[in-house]
Amino acid sequence: MADKAASKNKVPSVGLSTGRLLRTARRSQNITLQDLSERVNLSVGYLSQIERDIATPSLSSLTRLAAALTLDLGHFMPTAAARGLVSKAKDRETTWVRAGCMTYQRLHGEFPGATFSAYLITLPTGFVGEIDQHIGEEFVEIRSGRAIFEIDGIVHDLGPGDTLHFRSDMRHQARNPTDDETLLFWLGNGPALRQRPDMEARRIDD
To answer: Domains, the chain, ranges and CATH?
Structure first.
């Protein structure tokens, strides 16, 4: 089970309609699903599932979507306020894309030139993540529970203390096959979570 630091903030039982917000924002800017797909490196089919609230995007994908639509991430989900250089455990907020899915606790600070993001992420029981691929690299450490990561077709079964470091342009997916939550530490240096308007997402064919 996740430790106290990851579970002290209760997630409401009613989540945001991410799909409806995404569809409304996209249509208001006269952007087609195909155009958006090319901007964020997600397939048209997957974007359609998000808009119909069938699929829940990861924080990485939702950040790219917000950047492509020139919106703040907070348009789609509650976001933790920046707290300078230090992140006190007692002050951390838990955020989520949709209730019942992954939850995030932001660990990184904010200052000019910062290049990576860090989160404590909780994977709920039976979680199956999206297949993602984008610029950057990622580092994961399992704090509690078990997680299976598939990286470019190779399966890695990880338990407490195990780590994984990979290029984000390799197709990757995470899942929790157990009946308990999995807590992991995630560190990434790509633009996925710090995308600026002047940064254009690179298209990688499905």
So the answer is: 1-206 (2.60.120.10)
Token pair in block for residue 110: 């904010």
Amino acid, single-letter form, for residue 62: L
Edge-to-edge order in the sheet of strand 172-175: 154-158, 147-151, 172-175
Write out the chain's pLDDT in tens, 206 residues. Answer: 444 343 334 333 334 478 999 999 999 999 999 999 999 989 999 999 999 999 989 888 998 999 999 998 888 887 766 678 898 999 888 888 887 789 999 998 888 778 889 999 999 999 999 999 888 999 999 999 999 999 999 999 999 999 999 999 999 999 999 999 999 999 998 654 544 333 333 333 33
Q: Is 172 exposed, middle or buried (0-12, 13-18, 19+ CB in 10 A)?
A: buried
Residues 6+ apart with CB under 8 A from 37: 43, 44, 47
- pTM score, whole prediction: 0.77
132: nearest Cα among 60, 45, 63:
60
**Residues 6 or more apart from 56 whose CB is under 8 A from it?**
18, 50, 97, 98, 101
